[in-house]
Design brief:
Distance between the termini: 195 Å
Radius of gyration: 57 Å
CATH architecture of one domain: Ribbon
Largest sheet: 2 strands, antiparallel
Length: 243
């Protein structure tokens, strides 16, 4: 029996002493010894700290130390995470991974080497030249494939994802849609222009004919007035010059 054993402890202790800290823990808590200088103090925790693993017994739950190279472990001989500089493999911490495996510096584990995998080739594309499918005889056709599995650090690299080869086709003219539209637009504008010109000419012609008609009518009216007016010279009486 430790000296100064107390039943009124705090921090999860069931029993404690002023010199050694916790001596036993409340149910479901783990008892662990922490070293402070040359002295060890008992504490009660809900889970074991890093570098320890928990064991449960009927009378007490304890935290025991993992192996020196383990950061966390399930049992003393089965690590779940390694300390810096070691790689986890099958519960062990190794400085170098076995043959056929590679070190993953992100997870600090030994993992299988993954090689690149590519899908099947697509069908060959239509024969083209400078992005066109017409207006030439010799062009190129291509096919592609996708990467379905990227490689790991030591895996085989990925192959090319596209291939090109020469092709020969029967030459055919390109239908220049843009120029055709432009030409049709120009023709339409020209037609409208011609129609407008003809309309203006017809209007001028009608105006000229109307003006000629008015001139003829005015001329005819003038002639009729002259015929109706009396001749002043004929109405004058002869002057007697005898006297």
């Amino acid at each position: 029996v430790h000296p100064n054993v107390s039943q009124g402890c705090q921090g999860g202790c069931a029993t404690c002493s002023d010199y050694n800290g916790c001596l036993s823990c409340k149910p479901r808590l783990f008892f662990v010894l922490e070293r402070i200088g040359m002295k060890q103090i008992g504490v009660c925790l809900s889970s074991c700290p890093s570098g320890y693993y928990g064991t449960r017994y009927p009378d007490i739950n304890k935290c025991a130390k993992c192996k020196a190279d383990c950061d966390t472990c399930f049992t003393r001989n089965f690590c779940t995470k390694c300390k810096s500089g070691f790689y986890l493999y099958s519960g062990k911490c190794l400085e170098k991974c076995p043959d056929g495996l590679e070190a993953n510096n992100h997870t600090m584990e030994c993992t299988s080497i993954v090689h690149c995998e590519a899908s099947e080739w697509s069908p060959w594309s239509p024969c083209t030249k400078k992005g066109k499918t017409c207006g030439f005889k010799r062009g190129n056709e291509v096919r592609v494939r996708e990467i379905v599995q990227h490689p790991s650090a030591r895996g085989n690299p990925c192959p090319a994802t596209s291939e090109s080869r020469k092709c020969i086709v029967q030459r055919k003219r390109c239908q220049k849609e843009g120029k055709g539209k432009k030409s049709r637009e120009e023709k339409r504008k020209k037609s409208n222009k011609d129609e407008s010109k003809e309309t203006r000419q017809e209007s001028k012609g009608r105006a000229a004919r109307r003006q000629n008609r008015e001139q003829r009518e005015n001329s005819n009216k003038t002639q009729l007035k002259k015929k109706k007016a009396p001749n002043k010279e004929q109405n004058l009486a002869p002057i007697d010059t005898a006297h």
